[in-house]
């Protein structure tokens, strides 16, 4: 009787350890040559942002590879990150360079995902730093966890293929030297250049 009780207790303990271990599974950062983890973003309410993303007809959530463009640059940021705050003018410059270049406009889209930031916090960051491209909240860190709980700012370059598949061509932590050099890297690495 005691041996049977001990066996049952040991099995229950083993099951608990396995379940707890699985609940804390860590994801890796999106690897170059790999794909993004599967997640959705809510379509922006702002009609200009919807149009920028090619979602003017869409009122539901979407996946990044569904965007009608060739390249998406994703910035994982936090409104509380001093590095993200310092980087905001350069990222805005990057957006301006893309939108001001007829050869790149429409081919490269820029979005930001606020790790741990609510819609309100993302809105404060957007207004304070005059961000013109779409920013999305990730208040529960769900997307951040899927992205390997990267530090911020973190940039991911995604190439979207004509068949709807996609691949990550850039995945790095940290600020960039200048918007011009970063854009040159993005066009070269993505194959747009």
SSE blueprint:
Elements (H helix, E strand, L loop, with lengths): L1 H22 L17 E2 L4 H7 L7 E2 L8 E7 L4 H18 L8 E8 L3 H10 L6 E4 L3 H5 L7 E7 L5 E8 L5 H12 L3
Parallel strand pairs: 3-4, 4-5
Antiparallel strand pairs: 1-2, 3-6, 6-7
Helix pairs in contact: 3-6
In brief, what are we looking at here?
With 193 residues, this protein is α/β, with parallel strands linked by helices.
Q: Average pLDDT across residues?
A: 88
CATH superfamily: Glutaredoxin
Could you name the CATH topology?
Glutaredoxin
Assigned CATH class: Alpha Beta
Quick one: how many beta strands? 7
Overall SS class: alpha/beta
Give the overall shape: globular
Largest sheet: 5 strands, mixed
Radius of gyration: 20 Å
Percent of residues in helices comes to 25-40%
Number of domains: 1
- Low-confidence runs (pLDDT<50, min 5 residues)? 10-25
Give structural notes.
The protein has one domain: Glutaredoxin. With 193 residues, the chain is of the alpha/beta class. A five-stranded mixed β-sheet has the order 5-4-3-6-7. Strands 1-2 form a two-stranded antiparallel sheet. Helices cover 38% and strands 20% of the residues. It is globular.
Provide the descriptors you would attach to this structure in a database record.
Glutaredoxin; single chain; five-stranded mixed beta sheet; 7 strands; 193 residues; globular; 38% helix; alpha/beta
